[in-house]
Design goal:
Blueprint: H1 8-11, H2 32-35, H3 51-64, H4 85-91, H5 94-97, H6 109-126, E1 130-132, H7 138-155, E2 163-167, H8 173-180, E3 184-188, H9 198-203, E4 209-215, H10 227-236, E5 240-245, H11 257-260, E6 264-268, H12 269-272, E7 285-289, E8 301-305, E9 308-312, H13 331-367, E10 383-386, H14 388-394, H15 398-407, E11 414-415, E12 424-427, H16 435-455, H17 474-479
Parallel strand pairs: 2-3, 2-4, 4-5, 5-6
Antiparallel strand pairs: 1-7, 6-7, 8-9, 10-12, 11-12
Helix pairs in contact: 4-13, 6-13, 7-8, 13-16
């Protein structure tokens, strides 16, 4: 029997109190006429609950959430790996967690040094010349990078460069970020091996191309063997090349985008460099650039002079695109990334990538006899299964498989992405999972396929059976979300 949960408003009873505020020890202040429009006419209608009710409510919610601390999270393209708890300890140190961004620079030298050093480490890891830590997430990093590309072209009087080329296997945020920044998006097709069609790309070259956005390895888990030819093609036409770093977990310590010819990139620090990010956050989308784009970096830039770290504002960087995030980004994420890199070191980062690639190839080999691989041969950090044959034979779709995996105790992989693979299931095991975990997951997938072939699609329509809600209307929820409690009187 599935148990539903009442909201705090439904649990509320008049007069119940779970807190006691200290008596006011400063003079009360009336809003006055100048602040009248900003003051409430009445107290907010908050739920009234005993402390135990609140504790049980949120504890119950936490038990319904699936996390990487609880089990395997094979979400392709999202790099949901276990995050060492030493990073949490560092992020909670009072010198980091109890400072305020408006403090004088002299009182936050440790925080400024951490960000200065982290920028330098990320620049070395990626082969870039400078890194900004301001952007709040990957897509925000994309927009920041594209803003710098736009500023670069405009600084040269090259206003006709309005096109950004995006592969058909790209992350959906790539064309969205290009559009938000004011570019037109042009799609380039993949070839039979899952890589960018070099001939098709060359045919697109003209003086309207501002940039190519590319993920390498791409969303099929394939490393672009022609990467140098791709970047050289764009540069020969006067454009720049953007690296989507969502898949950097496959290459850190092994290959550097800066050495491949990329001019700008973003890294998902909350994926590759450790921060729990399930449920939508928090994130950090550090952006690295080559020297040609350094003048356009967001301000303030953290500099070092006369034995102290300082914030260099727009007056010192007149070509800067300006601030893109309040203060200095998500600082706690930056502390975790710094701790992660310092803990592992250069050899450790290489081992992370090597193990991530090994795990992906091991699991792909375990599953290829029941699911055709979208790309034959070795993969990098992730692989894509094609569930089209299973659906044709049994009526069981990739969505059905994903829901059945929940009942088996696993978070589902990414489904229906990339769009170029029908009934896609994208799996990324990451480096943190053991062989035993991968074997158990493969066995669960085999059992689901066996059940589908033996019983058909009907038993799958009600799955998952172990969750409070089985199959929500995800389309309606996305388009018409209910984000606040509606009181019975209509307020």
């Amino acid at each position: 029997m599935k148990r539903t949960m009442d909201t705090l408003f439904e649990t509320s009873r008049p007069g119940r109190v779970g807190y006691a505020l200290p008596e006011l020890d400063v003079p009360a202040v009336d809003c006055g006429e100048e602040l009248k429009g900003f003051c409430r006419a009445a107290a907010p209608r908050l739920p009234e609950l005993a402390e135990v009710d609140v504790v049980r409510h949120f504890t119950g919610l936490s038990k319904r959430n699936y996390s990487v601390d609880e089990g395997f999270y094979p979400l392709g393209s999202c790099t949901m790996k276990y995050n060492p708890k030493v990073n949490e300890v560092a992020a909670r140190m009072p010198g980091f967690s109890r400072i305020h961004p408006l403090q004088p620079e002299g009182t936050v030298q440790g925080a400024l040094k951490l960000m200065y050093d982290l920028s330098a480490m990320l620049a070395e890891i990626t082969g870039m010349d400078a890194v900004t830590l301001q952007p709040a997430a990957g897509a925000h990093g994309e927009q920041t990078g594209l803003m710098m590309i736009k500023a670069y072209h405009e600084s040269r009087g090259d206003h006709k460069r309005t096109k950004v080329i995006v592969p058909d296997s790209a992350h959906g945020t790539n064309p969205a970020s290009a559009a938000v920044t004011g570019f037109d998006t042009v799609e380039v097709a993949s070839d039979a091996e899952g890589m960018v069609d070099l001939d098709a790309l060359k045919a697109m070259m003209d003086d309207s191309v501002a940039a190519l956005m590319l993920t390498n390895p791409n969303t099929l888990g394939v490393f672009e063997r022609n990467i140098l030819a791709l970047t050289e093609t764009i540069h020969a036409a006067g454009g720049l090349v953007y690296y989507d770093g969502a898949n950097a977990n496959a290459i850190m310590g092994k290959a550097r985008p800066g050495d491949m010819g990329f001019d700008v990139l973003h890294l998902n620090l909350h994926k590759t460099f450790s921060t729990p990010h399930g449920g939508g956050g928090p994130g950090a989308g550090a952006v690295g650039v080559k020297n040609v784009l350094v003048p356009f970096l967001p301000t303030p830039v953290i500099g070092f002079a006369d034995g102290a770290y300082r914030l260099e504002h727009a007056d010192m960087h007149p070509q800067s695109i300006g601030r893109v995030r309040s203060f200095f980004g998500n600082f706690g994420v930056l502390v975790r990334a710094y701790t992660y890199i310092r803990t592992l070191g250069a050899e450790g980062l290489q081992e992370v990538s090597e193990t991530a690639v090994l795990n992906a190839n091991y699991l792909a080999k375990k599953l290829e006899h029941i699911y055709p691989l979208a790309h034959k041969g070795y993969c990098m950090h992730e692989f894509v299964l094609n569930g089209g044959a299973l659906k044709h034979e049994t009526g069981v779709s990739s969505l059905d498989v994903a829901k059945a995996l929940i009942d088996a105790g696993y978070h589902p992989p990414t489904v229906y992405f990339p769009l170029i693979v029908p009934e896609a299931l994208m799996v990324e095991p990451t480096e943190t999972e053991s062989q035993e975990t991968l074997d158990r997951f493969a066995a669960a997938m085999e059992e689901i396929v066996a059940k589908a072939k033996a019983e058909g699609a009907e038993p799958f329509h009600d799955m998952p059976l172990t969750t409070p809600v089985s199959r929500p209307d995800e389309t309606t929820a996305a388009r018409n979300p209910i984000l606040r409690w509606q009181f019975g009187d209509g307020e």
